[in-house]
Amino acid sequence: MATTFRHRWIFLGASLVALTLVLSGLALPRAWAAETVGSYRVAGSIAADGSLSVKATITFEGGTPATLVQRFRTDVDAPGDRQYVHQLANVTASAAGQPLAATVAQDGPHTVVTIPTQGSASVELAYTVTGAALREPTGQTTVSWRLLQGLSLPVREFSAEIVVPGMFELVDCAAGAPVAPGACTYYGGGTHEDPNPFFSDGPRGAGEIVLVTVRFPAGTVAANENVRQLWTLDRAFSSGPAELLAALGLLALSALGYWLLHRRIGRDSAHAGEPHRVAEFHPVGAGVVEFRVLDQLRPGQIGTLIDERGDPVDITASLLDLAVRGHLRITELPRASEHALPDWTFVRLQPADQLADFERTLLDAVAPAHGEPVKASNLAGAVGAVIGQVQSELYDDVVKRGWFAGRPDQTRGTWSRYGWYGLAAAVVATGLLAAFTTFGLLGLALVVAALLAIMVGQEMPSRTSKGSAVLSGLALLRAQLLGQPTDQMPPGRELDELSEILPYAVVLGGVQRWLDALVAADGDDDADSTDLAWYHAPEGWHLHDLPASIESFVTTIQGKLFTR
Q1: Cα-based distances in Å from 155 to 104, 139, 209
Q2: Which helix (H) or strand (E) holds 345?
Q3: Could you give the CA distance from residue 27 to residue 475 in angstroms, rounded to a whole number?
Q4: CA atoms of 153 and 131, how far apart (whole Å)
Q5: What's the longest Cα–Cα distance across the chain?
Q6: pLDDT tens across 33-78, in order?
Q7: CA atoms within 13 A on the CB side of 341
Q8: SS3 for 307?
Q9: Cα–Cα nearest to 430, from 439, 418, 419
Q10: How far apart are CA 333 and CA 393, in angstroms?
């Protein structure tokens, strides 16, 4: 009896489980079925003006979504850095003949249509596309549009028929992922039974496309393409024939213009007469000469004439010249140790000859009339404050002498200023040309032309005919400094005569051979620390130490002036 009762309970429990599974199985298809578009059917038409009218009937299965979203891509990339831009208009949605409050929004390159279904089993979406009719090089017109694209639900079956205004030459259909669609299931048209293009495909996943293409003979359908040119670096700086010729032409004209300007205003005036002699080795006996400076032309002045700049070489030569002429004495200081750097002091003296303005300013800086002597190691501080004034007075001096029509530094400054203004304008022009045209290379040519103006400006100071005559005389003096025998100085005055040559040799060349001549003029083995009136050295110093001392002095002074 107990066994029979237990069997009854087992049978009852098994029956309840089976009933539950059956009821659950019946409910599964409805509760778990995914929302899907059962069919997406398009009735479209292409007008003679190229516009495409679309009416899509969208039927749901497996449940109706609260909203249906379709995203239409309104631009299509084309060769040549271009895009075809499409426009959707007259977008409406309805269900069972009743309008639905569809919203249309722009999201970057997409037009997004959101349709509230209101529980309807099917909805209709209508719109008009312009810009999809593309002009072919042969004169034909191709209408191409993604009838299915960007849908928020998968589609089981797609079909479309497009009414056309006349005969067409080609029909094509591609379907699948937007980046690499394949062929549609089937498509065709243009026959007696099916005069209009038709298309069929499916199933398609959410977001997949069906792209239809119809090509018409010339004159059947008007092209209404809207082409947008894309900005790319290659396009902005195109090397096409027109762009390249424009850039090269501008460079050629710029080079020619600067060359003509340099010939007209930047070239030295010619001098037809004899060179203006600056100094000479004047015979004073048989095989004996003395060095004579003509017109009191100083090394700083002639150095500025040669390179059109008052630079550290000219300042250094002027210091040596002031010392040789007796305005100051250069004293080499004893070294604190074997490896210590050499140093010098400048002591002011009172000679009788006159000073040029730049010489007076320089002398006051390195050897003030009152106060402690200035050391070469402190030269940057002593001369740094007045070096600009020294250079300015040098430029005024060469203009006053009639060697230049205008100050060389001001001429260079004017050209540089205009060149930098031109460079700024060229950079702006390059940006604008690259942003809005394909002539970016023309802008780069403008930049090069502006830089060329800055470079050419450094060569624009021009010497007058008088300056050219002096420059010719300096060429003769340089030849003499490099070739004149060094052992023909008047006996007993060798040190003085050779010393006068040194500042000019620093500027014009040949300084080493004249230093060697000073060494050769020493006829004894005694120390020579005070034998030169303009250069004193520590005890035990000999004239054969002079080349190393002067080389160190020149290097130190120029270095201090460069780093001021």
Answers
A1: 22, 36, 10
A2: strand 344-348
A3: 113
A4: 27
A5: 165
A6: 468 999 999 999 999 999 999 999 999 999 999 999 999 999 988 8
A7: 10
A8: helix
A9: 439
A10: 31
C-alpha span between 66 and 62 (Å, rounded): 13
Phi, psi of 190 (to 5 degrees): 80, 15
For 194, phi then psi, to 5°, come to: -130, 80
Architecture of domain 36-230: Sandwich (2.60)
Q: How many CB atoms lie within 10 A of CB 512?
A: 12
Residue 242 CB contacts under 8 Å (≥ 6 apart), including other chains: none
- Per residue, the 3-state secondary structure of 284-296, as one string, reads EECCEEEEEECCC
- Residue 24, pLDDT score: 41
Two tokens, residue 499? 């010393």
CA distances from 3 to 9, 17, 100, 309 (A): 10, 22, 68, 127
Q: Dihedral sign, CA of 345, 347, 353, 358?
A: positive
Alpha carbon 222 to chain centroid, angstroms? 45
Instruction: Quote the CA–CA distance of 245 and 258 in Å, as a whole number.
Output: 20
- Strand 186-188 to strand 209-216: parallel, antiparallel, or no bridges (unpaired)? unpaired
Tokens of 104: 């249309």
pLDDT at 562: 66
Cβ-count burial of 16 within 10 angstroms (0-12 exposed, 13-18 middle, 19+ buried)? Answer: exposed
Residue 488 has pLDDT above 50, yes or no: yes
Structure-block tokens of residue 326: 């007796």
Confidence band for 28, pLDDT divided at 50, 70 and 90: very low
| CA dihedral over 184, 186, 191, 196, signed as positive or negative | negative
Distance of CA 269 to the CA centre of its chain: 38
Both tokens of 120, joined, read 């309807």
Structural domain boundaries of the chain?
36-230, 292-402+500-562
SS (HEC) of 41-69:
EEEEEECCCCCEEEEEEEEEECCCCCEEE
Place of tokens 């010489």: 359
Question: In the predicted model, what is the mean pLDDT of residues 427-432?
Answer: 96
Amino acid at 180: A
